[in-house]
Amino acid sequence: MDAIILQILNGLDKGSAYALIALGLTLIFGTLGVVNFAHGALFMIGAFCAVTLSKILSLSYIILDETQTDFLGKPLKVKVPYAESWFGPEIGAAIIDWSVPLAILFSIPVMLLIGFAMERGLIKHFYKRPHADQILVTFGLAIVMQEIIKYFYGANPIPTPAPDVFTGSYDFGVLLGFDPNVIIYPYWRLVYFGFSAIIIGAVFSFLRFTTFGMVVRAGMADRETVGLLGIDIDKRFTLMFGIAAAVAGLAGVMYAPINSPNYHMGMDFLVLSFVVVVVGGMGSLPGAVLAGFLLGTLESFASMNEVKSIFPGIDQIIIYVVAILILLTRPRGLMGRKGVMED
Amino acid sequence: MFGLDKKDATLLVIVAILTLCAPFLLNPFPSESALAQFNAGYPDLMQRFVIFGIFAIGFNILFGLTGYLSFGHAAFLGVGSYSAVWMFKLLSMNVIPAIILSVVVAGLFSLLIGFISLRRSGIYFSILTLAFAQMSFNLAYSVLTPITNGETGLQLTLNDPRILGQSATADGSIPVTSLFGLEMRSTYELVMGPWAFQFNAGYYLCAVIMVLAFYMSIRIFRSPFGLMLRAIKSNQTRMSYTGLNPKPYTLAAFVISGMYAGLAGGLMASMDPLAGAERMQWTASGEVVLMTILGGAGTLIGPVLGAGFIKYFENIFSKINDTVLHSWFSFMPDGLENLVVMLVYPFIGKGWHLTLGLMFMMVVIFLPGGLVEGGQRIRRLFRRKDDTPAAKTEPAE
Amino acid sequence: MMGILEVKNVNKRFGGLQALGDVNLSVAENSVHAIIGPNGAGKSTLLNCLVGKLMPDTGSVLFDGQSVLGRTPHEINQMGISRVFQTPEIFGELTVLENMMIPCFAKRDGSFRMHAIGHMFDEAELVEKAEHMLESMNMAGKHHMHAAAMSRGDKRRLEIAMCLAQEPRLLLLDEPTAGMARADTNNTIDLLKQIKDERDITIAIIEHDMHVVFSLAERITVLAQGMPLVEDTPENIKGHPKVKEAYLGEAH
Q1: Percent of chain B whose predicted confidence (pLDDT) is above 70
Q2: CB contact under 8 A, C102 and B231
Q3: How far apart are CA B204 and CA B184, in angstroms?
Q4: Do residues A72 and A173 touch, judged by C-beta distance below 8 A?
Q5: Would the N or C end of chain B have less CB density within 10 A of its end CB?
């Protein structure tokens, strides 16, 4: 029992990331009818927003500290971050420590901008082209984006720690009446899960309760008709793409402390996120979220030693096996609607 | 000639001559000159040209004709490589049985994957093939380690049985791959004045096989079967209401292109007898997509051009570093020189993939027919200048 | 007498909507049978049930004594039923001659034949057949044109020619003149008349345009709200009060 709870918890953070990326993919696909292979790259750029901000915040200058000496007896050279010298040592240190959460604020405008630019500059011209062309051009764009990041940040993963407060783990077992140290869960993963839940909630309420959201939902159901109603769908599409990019970016920002960002992390997530979208049902937002968590949890179950001793290597392939089975038995996915992408 | 009409026969002959003379054509610069870095007439690079050419020709039979975009073809290449290496380990170092086995195994594997993936079309098909390939890659890395040797990759050892050959040579080293005794690595160097040309046995084996593969693809393009494949791409509704069953046609195309990929994988292992899981990764599948599109999907010569183009520039671009750049632009005033070098630098050397990505996007956006279409446009431009009416381009050329 | 096409008690529901209710229809061999009815009468649903695109909930569809239900479109086509679509379905990226070759192959080789070695234009017999067909449709000289580049009228002719190349016993036409100018419509009528005179073929036509229906049909079935209303000769249909009611009802 405790092992099962632990695995469910372990599946949550990966599941959250899958769900957020899949949500963005589905938004873009559902409203714009575009298959975006560069969505993983947006996730990756989000993570690098966190890296960038933490680098900017910890920019330092060097002073000679007379109170300390090195082994030759000379005064020690000490790096002092600008942040500390401007805001005082304590607040400055806190700002640096909290750079990842701060990066949320930093990343939203950046991601929106990237999203707008991408839609206006490229995607717009591909609405009427075949899906194969959309896949190809966004695939090319993904390569370009990740190579740019690689050029500036190098090929190695860059550790980006979460604030100190969140290091350590929470002992869930005690809460549920198990022995201590049986079910422990890192705080930051808990934060990640909570954060994703908020974002998912925000996206859904945005679609549910605003006029804009209503038009978007109508557009997802029947794009042509909405166009005929004389609603300026172009601007909304651009905004929608920006939002989807921001969602992917935010997922990336907060994921940075869990896995040190590297330039190809987006591609790794993209393949799985596509599988998630397909399992959830192309064009179904709840399906994307559900499938994201489902597959995340399934993956962590499959990596239990008990399971692996029966089916060796199952953790490596479980997601693909499930996806293939679902596609063959329920071609529309778990919650897909009739008439979406049925060519 | 060979059942081809004049135009196709000419194309085949040109390709054959170009591949057979490649050691000359790719080494136009004297080996001591500053331009020698643009030479590409080295055995391993030339082998890569033709092997990836075969891979792309096969991929084009599926994607170019039927329009089904597979993102998992590297899996077949990987399977082919593994089969070939196993043949070297167990049977003998002769490349023929290894190549045959790799084609057969890749064919069977693609039959299985194709049968399942082709139950869906469009983007679902792409994602299914992607999932299958990624699954194979993960399996090769983990569970199948006894067969694939996991991360290290499958290699030959001195303890391999090699029933029809020898486990080790007389001097105690691992034997090398050969074609009935002709070693694949043997290279004849012809020195003519300042030029040096290399003729490699392995390259010529690959080149001959590629010309054959190219010939087969022309035959398929012009055959009734090829017509049906193009019909699938054009209009599946009309196809089934004309009494034709698209499924077996598509599956046949899928298996044929899988066998081409297996052939390429087998040749790769024959030139250098090792196989690693990274050959199956989806980035590798992406590469063959890039080659085919860049050259011109659905055209005969396009995939070969694309493969050669990408492999050539990959090799050349990654050799250029900032010292080379500085020497190129040294005629400029210092400040300007540094600026130009700084601007160009991100696109060369390790930045080759950036250039590739940009180029690929440009092709998809502006030139969906790839290099072949580009060539046709230029040709038409010249014809118009001559005031001759532009001839209609033949479809599927 | 048993017709070449026998539809018996066919029902089809979409959710709460009864698209077809107990449809019975008998098309006599070598006749021209029109199925008419106001919008939403279930004409297209009925057609889709005949060609394997839809599966009726109950009932039977017999073609020449054999059931077509549960068969795929290409199987039904190989039985001898060809379909012409409302908007011409042709192979736009292929040349006109290639378009014509495809049904010729389908007729000779069946639904699948691995034919990867020969040259498609080496099949002299089939090329001749395709060219002959194009000629008889007044489309000679357009052999090497991309089908997509043709006018709509020509696309329609090509599609009909492709269907005829298969020598079907039953030709189904789904509003073949929809969206056509008067002149094109008249051309199509003449073409169909010519086809009927020259061949042993049964034609079932779904049509909105009364002019087309009354110029061609020997028998007419009127559908309304998924039910067959009347079946009779054109003369009797013209003044039939029920038919008038059905059509006038639609106008309101």
Answers
A1: 96
A2: yes
A3: 9
A4: no
A5: N
Helix (H, G, I), strand (E, B) or coil at A181: coil
Residue C90 and residue B239: Cβ atoms within 8 Å? no
Q: Which residues of A touch B142 (CB under 8 A)?
A: 312-313, 316
Residue of B267, B283, B257 whose CA lies nearest to B49: B267
Model pTM?
Answer: 0.89
Select the residue of B120, B134, B351 nearest A271 (Cβ to Cβ).
B134
Reduce the DSSP state of residue A95 to 3 states and report it. helix
Residue B1: what pLDDT?
A: 61
What average pLDDT does this structure show over A11-35?
86
Residue C69: the pLDDT is 92
In terms of average pLDDT, the best of A202-211, B159-168, B193-202, C77-86 is C77-86
- Specify burial of residue A187 (Cβ count, 10 A radius: 0-12, 13-18, 19+): middle
Q: Do B230 and C51 touch (CB under 8 A)?
A: no
Is residue B217, in this structure, part of any structural domain at all?
yes
In this predicted model, which residue has the larger pLDDT, C196 or A339? C196
B230–C101: do the CB atoms touch at under 8 Å? no
C78 touches chain B (CB under 8 A): yes
Percent of chain B topping pLDDT 90: 47
Span B148-162, average pLDDT: 87
Instruction: Say what angle helices B95-117 and B74-90 make with each other, to 10 degrees.
Output: 150
The ipTM is: 0.92
Q: Which residue of A has its CA nearest to B142?
A: A313
Q: Does residue A142 sit within a domain?
A: yes
Give the CATH number for residue A268.
1.10.3470
H-helix segments, B118-241: 122-141, 145-148, 201-222, 224-234, 236-240
Mutate one of B63, B119, B123 to test the A interface: name it (highest A CB count within 10 A). Answer: B123
Residue C206, SS3 per DSSP: strand
Q: Identify whether A73 is part of a domain.
A: no
Q: Between A278 and A108, where is the model more confident?
A: A108
Q: B147: domain CATH number?
A: 1.10.3470
Non-local CB neighbours of A81 within 8 Å, separated by 6+ positions: A57, A58, A59, A60, A92, A96
Of the two residues A211 and A229, the one the predictor is more confident about is: A211
| Domain segments of chain C as ranges | 1-80+168-252, 89-167
Please tell me the distance in Å from B299's CA to the nearest CA on chain C. Answer: 13
Task: Place A227 in a pLDDT band, splitting at 50, 70 and 90.
Answer: low
- Smallest CA–CA separation between C238 and chain B, in Å? 34
Point out the residue among B119, B122, B361 whose CB comes nearest to the CB of A131. B122
> Is A181 among the domain residues?
yes
A112 token code pair: 């929106």
Q: Give the mean pLDDT of chain C.
A: 88
Of the candidate CATH numbers 1.10.230.10, 3.40.50.1110, 3.40.50.300, 3.30.70.1520, the domain formed by C1-80+168-252 belongs to 3.40.50.300
Residues of chain B contacting A320 with CB distance shorter than 8 Å: 131-132, 134-135, 138
Q: Is A216 on the interface with B (CB under 8 A)?
A: no
Q: Which chains share 3+ C-beta pairs under 8 angstroms with A?
A: B
Residue B132 lies in a domain: yes
pLDDT, tens digit, for every residue of B210-262? 999 999 999 999 999 999 999 999 999 999 999 999 999 999 999 999 999 99
User: A123, A265, A316: best mutation site toward chain B, by most B Cβ within 10 Å?
Assistant: A316
Q: What is the pLDDT of residue A231?
A: 66
Mean pLDDT is lowest, of A323-327, B373-377, C166-170, for A323-327
The one-letter code for the residue type at A39 is H
Beta-carbon pairs below 8 A across chains A and B: 106
Residue B49 CA to residue B211 CA, distance in Å, equals 12
The structure tokens listed for A267 are 């591609």
